[in-house]
Structures are given as structure tokens and as C-alpha cells.
Design goal:
Layout: E1 9-13, H1 17-27, E2 34-39, E3 45-46, H2 48-51, H3 72-76, H4 82-96, H5 113-133, E4 138-141, H6 149-159, E5 164-169, E6 176-179, H7 228-240, H8 249-265, H9 279-292, E7 302-306, H10 313-316, H11 325-333, E8 341-345, H12 357-364, E9 369-371, H13 378-384, E10 388-390, H14 394-401, E11 406-408, E12 420-422, H15 429-434, H16 439-451, H17 471-486
Parallel strand pairs: 1-2, 1-4, 2-3, 4-5, 7-8, 8-9, 10-11, 11-12
Antiparallel strand pairs: 5-6
């Protein structure tokens, strides 16, 4: 990854406490010459400076305190690289929208397109100057860059020709992934798999559960009503966004009535106001209500497309152009015969972010699209479908585990497994509907794949599925792996196709 004769000088991006302990150990490693860390207060630079557009100091001070143009990025951009620069800019704007005032109580102050453009130029130049000042020769990320601050660090490093190493936790306990370029994710070489590989048992009819998803129970299926938490969120919205509602009792009552009606129509697991309230949510959930009472015909031919939660890395970082999920569904519809429907199910944790009325208008313009109620069982939809389509979601892994082929529009980690078909305009509906997955081959592929993954936790939240997790032992596993890959003694899990 870097010149074998050189020691790593690392730019590290990771905000969790687990990432902090790993970067601290890397700093003290005799095989690392220098490490510049971007994260929270304890790191060298506080990344909230970027995501909130407000100065916040880290150990080396505040990132934007030097207000002079350096030209560090402009000097190294190759001729013709401005097109890629502006593609990156679009992605950065998309990622930074998670802090926009419609979706967050502590938003950044950017509003217009040109404010985003100017801001990107400013921050990109500052990041480039830090890379140059600290003579960085490799950039390290503890998740697929998708939060805004890590996005621009990854982009600037790429534009400057700095090698990058991305780590990402898996759904398998104590296993993580690694790759150098976002387009490499999922590129895994199964040609070296030995005949006698130990298979990984996959129950075809298992209803998988994940620690980050709330289980659906009889209680969670019940309808609800506005409670104290909801009223506090609504009050916070009024005080921060529309204080004049306090002197307009008629308008306030209409808002509360709409909120109560929505709350009463959805099951508890589909909490409309789980973490945030904005009046735009009312439009979003009222749109979904149009589909809540519709029946689902499981006997007819259909393809299942479960929508991703957004914003998340699975679309923002790994979906490419198909971060726009409506675009994926539009393209999917072109593969299907006239009598085949697309059953679209909203993600149970989704709020109004990236789901404006025009999003649903685009879906409703597609004759084959049918939005199913939130209580429809995702496993039943998978089992009765002709095949499943997704950007990069876990639903794709569940599909092939249950014997259903999957069409992917992004770069999921399971991209190279049997039964996975990256979207192409010439894909055959007949083949996708009839081609059988040999389950024993899938289990062997999974066994070999897992045997090649490094051990460890690089994203703090996943330690919940590791019994007796010990951070010191974890660091002793992860740090040598990072150093070996950076210094070229090992390859990342995913590599560019030859």
C-alpha cells in the first residue's frame, strides 16, 4: 500500500471510543512514524467543526483556525481531475445533508447550493494543507466514509493520490472487512477456495435477527398515541423552528391533530417521531398512510425491493449513483415483464429524510410499483418473490440465504457470492426468476469468506455481539493487521478486480 521502505504517516478518521484506543496504539507503534487523528475532543482535530460548521477544538486546536488559502489540493490535481472533484462535491453535499435543519436540532448553517460549493472548496483546501503539513502517506477509516467529515477526508486523500484503507464491521461476530477504494467493496476472489473448505451453516428458513434492529412483537404491533416524549419533541420543534405557533392556537391544534392521527395509524415499532419532529414528517407519514390498509397479493409475480434507511453508509457511501433509491427502482422496472410488480416496503426506522413528496411521485409514476403496508413480513415477501432487489442491504444476504437471487445496485460485501447479480440493463428476468442457488455452494463460499476475514471490532457498537469483549485484546488483534496491510505485508479483504 505504501513504499515498503517508508514508515506510515497516517491520517486517521474515527469518532468512537474504540477507534480512539486503536489510534492511540498505532501512535505508539514502532512501525508507525506519525499519526494525525480526526474525531472527537480527544483526537487531534474535532470533526464537528466540519459537520456543524462551528469551531470546535481538538488536541491540536480548531481545524479552520488558519484562514489562509494554501492551494495544497489545487497544486496536485491532475489535468482533468476537476470532473471527479465535482462528483465528490455532490457526494459531500448529500452526506452533509444529514445535518440540515429539516432533519436535525443542531444543524449546520448551510442553506443554498452555492453555500455548499463554497464550503466544500474551503474545507477541501484545509484538509489538503493538513495532509501536506503532516506529510501523510496513507489515510485510515473505521467505517465506510459517509458522515461528511470522513467523506471529505477520503475524497481529498484520493484526489491527492494518498492510499486509503477502509475498515468496516460485519454482521458476523468479531469479524471486519477492509478495502482500499470504495468501488472494491465486495470484490472477493473465490477461485482460490479449496475443495475441502469448512462450510458455514446457513439455515434457509431462519428468520434472522440483528442486534441493531428491534424485534417485532405483539406489543410492538399495537397502535399508539401521542405520549410525553412525542409532545416534548413537538415542543422542541416549535421553539426552534416555528415559535409563532404558540400564539396561533388554531394552527397548533391542527398540527397536534395531524400528529395524533399519524401516531394512531402506525404500529409502535414504526414510531413516526422516534428521535425528531418536523412538520415535513407529517406529509411523509400521511403519504405512507395511503398504503397502510392495502392488501398484498402473494400469488402474483413480483420482485421485492425493501427500501434502505437513509442516510446510512449502505447507500450514501456504497450505493454510488443509486444513493437515489427511486432511480434504482426505475431501472429495475425496465427489466420486468408487464405482469410483474415491484413490491416496495419502507424501512421501519425511516423518517422523512430523503423521502419528500416528489420521491413518492416518482414511484407512483411506475405502473408496476406497489407500496406495501409497514406490517407486511419481509421474510414472506422474500420467500414469495421472483427475486429480491437492493442497493447493498442485508436483505440481499437474507435473500440468497433463503434461496432467492438478488439484484444489487451498489457494492455490497456479499457481491461475489452465488446468486448475486450486479445490475446491468441486459439482465435476464427469466434467469433471475429461475436460476437455482446451490445451498451447499453458498455455505462453502461463506465458510471460506469468513476464514479470510480479520478478527476484531473496529466499530464500537458491534462489541455487543462479542461475548466477554476485551478492548486490550481487541487492539492487539486489530493494530498489527492495519500495519501489515498498510506496509504491504498483507492484502485487504477486497481488492480491485484484475
Amino acid at each position: 500500500m505504501i513504499d515498503p521502505e517508508s514508515l506510515p504517516r497516517i491520517l486517521s478518521c474515527g469518532t468512537g471510543p474504540g477507534a480512539s484506543s486503536i489510534t492511540s496504539s498505532l501512535k505508539n507503534s514502532p512501525e508507525v512514524e506519525h499519526l494525525l487523528s480526526f474525531g472527537r475532543e480527544e483526537q487531534d482535530y474535532h470533526m464537528a467543526t466540519i459537520t456543524r460548521t462551528r469551531p470546535k477544538a481538538g488536541a491540536l486546536g480548531e481545524l479552520t483556525s488558519d484562514h489562509y488559502y494554501s492551494g495544497a489540493l489545487a497544486r496536485v490535481l491532475a489535468p482533468g481531475e476537476l470532473d471527479r472533484f465535482y462528483q465528490f462535491l455532490f457526494q459531500f453535499v448529500d452526506h452533509l445533508h444529514r445535518r440540515e435543519s429539516h432533519y436535525h436540532y443542531r444543524p449546520h448553517g448551510l442553506q443554498t447550493l452555492h453555500e455548499y460549493v463554497n464550503y466544500y472548496h474551503l474545507i477541501a483546501d484545509i484538509i489538503a494543507s493538513k495532509i501536506q503539513e503532516h506529510r501523510i502517506n496513507v489515510a485510515l477509516f473505521f467505517n465506510a466514509p459517509h458522515l461528511g467529515h470522513d467523506t471529505i477526508c477520503y475524497q481529498v486523500a484520493s484526489l491527492m493520490g494518498i492510499p486509503t484503507l477502509v475498515l468496516m464491521q460485519t454482521i458476523f461476530p468479531n469479524k471486519f472487512l477492509s478495502w482500499s477504494h470504495m468501488a472494491d467493496c465486495g470484490n472477493f476472489d473465490f477461485s482460490r477456495m479449496p475443495e475441502d473448505v469448512a462450510p458455514y451453516q446457513i439455515e434457509q428458513k431462519e428468520h434472522p435477527s440483528y442486534f441493531y434492529m428491534d424485534p417485532v412483537t405483539n406489543k410492538s404491533l399495537r397502535k399508539s398515541h401521542l405520549g410525553p416524549k412525542d409532545l416534548l419533541l413537538i415542543l422542541a420543534y416549535i421553539l426552534t423552528k416555528e415559535p409563532t405557533l404558540l400564539i396561533k392556537p388554531g394552527n397548533l391544534l391542527r398540527l397536534l391533530s395531524r400528529a395524533q392521527n399519524i401516531k394512531a395509524k402506525f404500529p409502535r415499532f414504526r414510531d413516526p417521531f422516534a428521535r425528531f419532529f418536523h412538520v415535513s414528517q407529517l406529509d411523509y407519514f400521511e403519504t405512507l398512510l395511503e398504503s397502510e390498509d392495502q392488501s398484498v397479493d402473494f400469488e402474483r409475480s413480483f420482485v421485492y425491493f425493501p427500501l434502505h434507511l437513509q442516510p446510512e453508509a449502505t447507500t450514501s457511501a456504497m450505493g454510488g449513483a443509486y444513493v437515489d433509491q427511486a432511480l434504482a427502482i426505475e431501472h429495475l422496472s425496465l427489466l420486468l415483464p408487464e405482469d410483474c410488480r415491484i413490491y416496495v416496503k419502507e424501512n421501519p426506522k425511516q423518517q422523512h429524510f430523503m423521502r419528500d413528496p416528489l420521491f413518492f411521485h416518482r414511484l407512483h409514476r411506475i405502473p408496476s410499483v406497489h407500496i406495501v403496508p409497514s406490517t407486511t413480513c419481509t421474510h414472506k415477501l422474500t420467500d414469495h418473490s421472483q427475486f429480491v432487489a437492493t442497493i447493498t442491504g442485508t436483505a440481499g444476504w437474507e435473500a440468497i440465504s433463503r434461496g432467492k437471487n438478488v439484484v444489487t445496485f451498489g457494492n455490497p460485501w456479499y457481491q461475489s457470492f452465488p446468486g448475486v447479480y450486479p445490475y446491468q440493463p441486459n439482465l435476464s428476468y427469466a434467469e433471475l426468476s429461475s436460476q437455482q442457488i446451490v445451498h451447499e455452494d453458498l455455505e462453502k463460499s461463506a465458510g471460506y469468506f469468513l476464514s479470510q476475514l480479520p478478527d476484531g471490532i473496529v466499530y464500537e457498537r458491534y462489541k455487543a455481539i462479542v461475548p466477554d469483549f476485551n478492548q486490550e485484546e481487541n487492539v492487539s488483534c486489530v493494530v498489527p493487521y492495519i500495519v501489515n496491510v498498510i506496509r504491504g505485508r498483507s492484502s485487504p479483504v477486497f481488492v480491485k478486480k484484475s
